[in-house]
Amino acid sequence: xxxxxxxxxxxxxxxxxxxxxxxxxxxxxxxxxxxxxxxxxxxxxxxxxxxxxxxxxxxxxxxxxxxxxxxxxxxxxxxxxxxxxxxxxxxxxxxxxxxxxxxxxxxxxxxxxxxxxx
Length: 118
Fold this sequence. Notes:
The protein has helices at residues 2-14, 53-69, 104-112, and strands at 18-27, 37-41, 46-48, 73-78, 93-101. The protein is an alpha+beta fold.
């Protein structure tokens, strides 16, 4: 996890946006527990993990949206139902907070942009 914090500090020093996804709660059997973190860089690169697979893809999508509009999000990943075969079931649920970390000028620009309705 130390490498993740070093990566975050470097991006912040350089003024490069990224999103931080943090597991805030779990129920049942999950691949990672509360406090697990993952960074999503503006180019879509992932650093760290919150569990991998389809659930991580859901969080990646939310992170990219957060980077676009500057808004944080809560994502609930339900691993209780098979998506593509039985091997993808962990049997639990993760609640993940996705927070865009933007330099001040970027945050102001994105906050002023119209929020898409949908």
